[in-house]
């Protein structure tokens, strides 16, 4: 592999692929897309009195054993926040790309309520006199290129990622030294139940985060450990190891640079973070800037596409991460027992890296992050022999038509390809939780 890192050449292309969530259908998007592609016209803020059946969010902070009452969510999926700021002149709830005015009470506390939100996890913040701050009532999550607040709107199918009385694996923080980065890089590693009790070796899935997020996301916002625990307990998935690494490689500059850093420049606009409002379509979706007509780079009459490969992260993954985890964990260290998947930017990394290293990965998953077109496959017979699964997932409120078309074409070519659409979700964590829930049972089913 040549040691030439693709950076400046990718800037104009990457900047077209914002990895941020779309506002829910029917919700206002007044400030939603923050300008540029993906902007939606303002919609009136719902000023009707909310149904008074609010309950604290499952993500609220605990102080001295007491769970904060706010933020809270009602049966209409409206979010209500509270902040004691007696000297403030203006406070707003900033969620889903909309700023909702909060009202000051006689006690100096501000309270405000949003429109109905999609089910699942949402980043949000409070804006106090023009300064955006975290809500002290909730836990902190890394997303939107910052540590900030999160709220959980209960989902009708939340049982698949619920904490249950089943055997649980471990999610541990691991650091390994990268010569490429000349730094220790953080990872989270999920090991399945009973890993500590025996000498058995396991397949491994390398699972990547989106832009503006990091290695904390899949274990925190994504509930990857609980999803996998529950599937294993139900006998629906085989036990496997998950490695969740950072895509940001310090010291390399440009693409895959410092933590939270995504290049900016063309048009003055950087790639935006995952799980946030105002998305433009990611690579591999029709209408995305630079995207191929059928969602895959290349191909006659399909426009100029985008392949995220030969990046610093690719070199770290292939040359350092995989050897490190094969040496230090009981992996089955061969191609048939190794997979890669990711959400949004992580899906784009998965797309480029797996196509460039079919000798390393047999199971491929792209969640809201493009797809593989048959025109990209140089040797279909070799591809079918090596690749056991291609999985493409999108939220129903994203534009996943190209991904679905590519999956159908791969099926016709004899590839084991699966398309999944998450109902009533956009570019957000509930889509990706559901993707993992559908993807995991399909992994490593061979002998």
**Which structural class best describes the helix and strand composition?**
alpha+beta
- The helix content is 10-25%
Quote the distance from N terminus to C terminus: 31 Å
CATH superfamily of the largest domain, by name, is: Alpha/Beta hydrolase fold, catalytic domain
Shape: globular
Q: What's the assembly state of these chains?
A: single chain
Largest sheet: 8 strands, mixed
Number of domains: 2
Per CATH, the architecture of the largest domain is: 3-Layer(aba) Sandwich
Number of helical stretches of at least 4 residues: 7
In CATH terms, what is the fold-level topology of the largest domain? Rossmann fold
**CATH class group of the largest domain:** Alpha Beta
* Overall pLDDT confidence: 84
Note the beta-strand portion: 15-25%
What's the total count of β strands? 21
Please give the order of strands in the largest beta sheet. 14-15-17-16-18-19-20-21
Radius of gyration in whole Å, from Cα? 22 Å
Enumerate the spans where pLDDT stays under 50 for 5 or more consecutive residues.
Answer: 1-38, 254-272, 277-305
Instruction: List SSEs in N-to-C order.
Output: HEEEEEEEEEEEEEEEEHEHEHEHEHEH
Q: What does the model show?
A:
The protein contains seven helices and 21 strands. With 447 residues, it is an alpha+beta fold. The strands form four sheets. Strands 14-15-17-16-18-19-20-21 form an eight-stranded mixed sheet, with helices on both faces. The longest helix is centred in the last third of the chain and has 17 residues, at 312-328. The radius of gyration is 22 Å and the shape is globular. The two termini are 31 Å apart.
């Amino acid at each position: 592999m040549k040691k030439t890192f693709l950076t400046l050449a990718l800037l104009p292309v990457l900047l077209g692929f914002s990895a941020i969530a779309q506002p829910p259908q029917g919700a206002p998007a007044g400030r939603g897309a923050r300008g540029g592609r993906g902007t939606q016209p303002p919609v009136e803020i719902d000023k009707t009195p909310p149904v008074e059946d609010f309950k604290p969010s499952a993500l609220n902070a605990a102080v001295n054993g007491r769970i904060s009452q706010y933020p809270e969510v009602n049966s209409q999926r409206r979010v209500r926040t509270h902040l004691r700021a007696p000297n403030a002149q203006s406070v707003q709830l900033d969620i889903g790309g909309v700023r909702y005015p909060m009202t000051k009470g006689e006690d100096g506390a501000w309270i405000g309520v949003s429109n109905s939100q999609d089910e699942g996890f949402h980043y949000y913040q409070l804006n106090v006199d023009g300064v955006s701050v975290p809500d002290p009532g909730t836990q902190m999550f890394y997303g939107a290129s910052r540590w900030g607040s999160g709220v959980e709107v209960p989902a009708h199918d939340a049982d698949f990622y619920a904490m249950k009385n089943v055997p649980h694996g471990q999610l541990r923080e691991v650091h390994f030294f990268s010569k490429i980065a000349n730094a220790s890089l953080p990872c989270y590693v999920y090991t399945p139940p009973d890993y500590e009790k025996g000498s058995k070796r396991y397949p491994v899935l390398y699972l990547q985060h989106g832009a503006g997020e990091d290695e904390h996301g899949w274990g925190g916002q994504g509930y990857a450990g609980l999803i996998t625990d529950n599937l294993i307990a139900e006998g629906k998935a085989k036990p496997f190891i998950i490695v969740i690494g950072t895509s940001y490689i310090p010291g390399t500059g440009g693409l895959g640079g410092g933590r939270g850093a995504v290049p900016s420049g063309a048009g003055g606009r950087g790639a935006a973070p995952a799980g946030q409002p105002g998305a433009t379509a990611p690579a591999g979706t029709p209408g995305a800037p630079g995207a191929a007509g059928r969602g895959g780079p290349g191909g006659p009459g399909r426009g100029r596409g985008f392949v995220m490969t030969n990046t610093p992260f690719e070199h770290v993954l292939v040359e350092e991460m995989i050897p490190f985890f094969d040496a230090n964990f009981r992996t089955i260290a061969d191609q048939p027992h190794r997979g890669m998947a990711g959400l949004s930017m992580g899906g784009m990394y998965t797309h480029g890296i797996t196509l460039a290293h079919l000798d390393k990965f047999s199971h491929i998953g792209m969640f809201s992050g493009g797809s593989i077109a048959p025109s990209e496959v140089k040797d279909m017979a070799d591809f079918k022999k090596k690749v056991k699964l291609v999985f493409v997932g999108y939220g129903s409120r994203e534009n996943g038509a190209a991904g679905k078309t590519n999956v159908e074409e791969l099926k016709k070519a004899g590839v084991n390809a699966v398309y999944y659409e998450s109902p009533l979700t956009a570019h957000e964590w509930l889509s990706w939780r559901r993707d993992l829930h559908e993807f995991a049972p399909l992994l490593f089913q061979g002998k």
